[in-house]
Write a structure and sequence with these properties.
The protein has 445 residues and is an all-alpha fold. It contains 21 helices and no strands. The chain starts with a helix and ends with a helix.
Length: 445
Amino acid sequence: MTRQQLADQAMDKAQKKLVPFILLMYVLAFLDRANIGFAKQAFQVDTGISDAAFALGAGIFFLGYAVFEVPSNIIMHHVGARMWLARIMITWGLVAAAFAWVTNETMFLALRVLLGICEAGFFPGIIYYLTFWFTSSRRSSVMGLFYFGAPLSFIFGSPLSGILMDMDGVLGFHGWQWMFVVEGLLATLVGIWALSYLVDKPSNATWIPNEERQALIAELEDENANKPQGHASPLKVLGNPMVLFLCAIYFMIQISVYGVTFYLPTQVAAMMGKKVGFAVGVVSAIPWVCALIANATIPRYSDRSGKRGILAAGLMFFAGLGVIASATGSPVIGVAALSLATAGYFSCQPVFWTMPSRFLSGVAAASAIALINSVGNLGGFIAPNLRVWAEQTFHNPSAGLYALGSAAFVAALLFIISIALGIGSNTPPTIARRASENQGAQSTL
């Protein structure tokens, strides 16, 4: 059996052991980040928070998140993923639950900033963590599974949030208070569980046979040794033109994503002519089912074909069309358009995240991934405010969706440019495998 085959078996075991758990973590992370959209109407009525303050709070989360992303990933590089990811989940879960006691705009904005600070480093930490366990030939597929988190959080989280919102008045609590407390404490409990479940690196994975474990470590070491900037310092990486270009792409993606996801429940409610509750939660889950299907197939196709930039460009183009088409009064057309948009957004991102690891590894990769996610998530701050600004400036309720759709088109254009720069060019998927198999075959002679 060749070294590549042994490494593949090790990666199969790692995928079965680790990916479902980090997927659970991401489901709760995304749910605690986006459930503010479910609370919007009742939350504003009960607390007196204005539309402008709500939009600011929805986006201000990303300011604290952005500032602490790079330091968080560097700390994780030194202390290990198990301890650091658990710390992130425990603290953000407690802060998320504290939203149940918000009574004014100041408390709301302060907790949104604190939530961003507590969660900073979670997403780039997971992306970096996956590079410890999977070679580039498997990374897009595995990241596609990780990206199930966002669709699953809405497929199951939307009805859950709707049920909790319908508990209004139970034990004297508002429905939105139940939602924040239950979903926040779930994240804290999973964070405590992570302390005993996660494993930092393959060398610590006693559940992988030694021969397979050593083969995987060797494959990863060979892959990292061939990266042109694998050992660059964090400061040098943060000024790298290719890294900054990837920041720009992710920034435009996130403007499009969060401008839609923050308002998706209320947009669906407006189409249906209903208030946000269980029925709206079920319909709101439909676009995420489509995103789940896309994430199960498109990243895997990307790994098999080696197509990166051109595939991502096409996905963002159709996502932009979906956002613009959702500006309709027809519930059927609107939900179908949102389904196209979410499928494009979320299946594009696993493909995107294979690009930084094409030329970076180690602490350089940790710093770059964190910076890209940090700058990109500033798009999450811009998005809700851009949407409100466009609607108010042009006195058109659809203007915000047109602006968000345009951001997706810009992202598609940048992906095309990435092909010319080499970071988004197609990767022949069989070259590395054949080289490794030939090496293994020669070693057995």
